[in-house]
Design a protein that fits this description.
Length: 339
């Protein structure tokens, strides 16, 4: 295949995996719709009267009984998971063919479009690898929806044609630095999803406790708050040392080889350090001050905001003043038709 054919294959694979992700989203929404709790009073006869007259007492309601559809829910869940696995495979083809489309062949991490394409794949793979360990079926609609929306924005806003790597990127440290950064980004994103769900469920739970009602639906089936908090903490604890290596070790070494200095207070470097400080504060507060629950979730989401602003915001708002401007999209977005 020629390089242009590989580029066309990559574009078509992105469109195909987006369609499969969309089907996975529908399957997971159907899964949780089938699992809604329906409460109906059930009447049960009490038997004969106390006096032994043989006259049965009136039937009395025994309280609400949960009518569920676990089999349909499990079926939709399996379908959604299978579709997600298929989409992740097609997603990988899109990444690989993007790199093969360049002349010379390179890794597919030369700009924001390619970084986003790879980063969303890492999020999906992290979710799939942790699926059974933490029973993450409750996270399925969030992950698939996030990846689908991000891929749509990636294609419509960030897409650029395949071009050779710039001189600053011609280094083996590109692979080392970006692999670490993308892995940490995927872990922080999954942890941020858990933290966001923690805040949503906590507010939902307080509301139902206040009015004495019984909750039902998706939020009722989320894990208990301590479980959400624990999963968020573990994913952040996994991603932090990797981000430390990417931002404070591999990045400066690469900068030294590319620009002759380890640290230049470039906007990208500054925000990478800010992200590191926020997540360091998150983990330190949990370890020393016992911060858990709501406070920890808020700090984690602040860290996630700085992380994504470092990736997107710096390139859009400070791109012209940054030595990382090669990562920004072209001024006029290029949208390719899938011929």
């Amino acid at each position: 295949m020629t390089h242009s054919q590989f580029e066309l294959l990559s574009n078509q694979a992105v469109a195909a995996c987006a369609v499969v992700y969309f089907l996975a989203v529908l399957a997971h929404f159907a899964q949780w719709a089938a699992g809604r709790k329906v409460e109906e009073p059930v009447e049960q006869p009490v038997g004969v009267g106390a006096a032994g007259s043989g006259t049965p007492l009136a039937a009395t309601p025994t309280g609400p009984t949960t009518i569920d559809e676990p089999e349909r829910m499990e079926l939709f869940g399996r379908v959604g998971l299978s579709l997600t696995v298929v989409a992740a495979f097609v997603h990988f083809i899109a990444m690989a063919s993007r790199g093969l489309a360049s002349d010379p062949v390179r890794v597919p991490w030369g700009n924001m479009y390619e970084f986003t394409l790879t980063g969303t794949w890492v999020v999906v793979m992290g979710y799939l690898l942790l699926y059974r360990r933490y029973s993450l079926s409750w996270l399925s609609p969030v992950v698939t929806s996030f990846v689908l929306v991000t891929l749509m924005i990636d294609v419509l806003v960030l897409y650029t044609p395949v071009v050779p790597l710039r001189d600053a990127l011609q280094s083996p440290w590109l692979i080392i630095h970006v692999v670490a950064a993308i892995t940490a980004t995927g872990a922080f994103t999954l942890g941020g999803m858990c933290s966001a769900l923690y805040l949503v469920k906590e507010r939902w739970q307080r509301k139902h406790e206040a009015d004495g009602s019984t909750g039902r639906g998706y939020l009722a089936r989320l894990p208990e708050l301590p479980v959400l908090d624990r999963i968020a903490y573990r994913t952040h604890a996994f991603g932090f040392p990797i981000w430390t290596f990417a931002a404070l070790i591999a990045g400066p070494i690469w900068a030294h080889y590319a620009w002759g200095r380890y640290w230049g207070w470039d906007p990208k470097e500054v925000w990478a350090f800010i992200t590191w400080v926020v997540y360091a504060a998150y983990l330190h507060a949990r370890a020393t001050s016992g911060w858990k629950g709501r406070s920890a979730a808020v700090v984690a989401l602040v860290g996630l905001a700085t992380l994504w602003f470092n990736f997107v915001g710096i390139n859009f708002f400070f791109g012209s003043g940054s030595q990382h401007s090669y990562a920004a999209p072209e001024p006029v977005a290029v949208v390719r038709t899938l011929e």
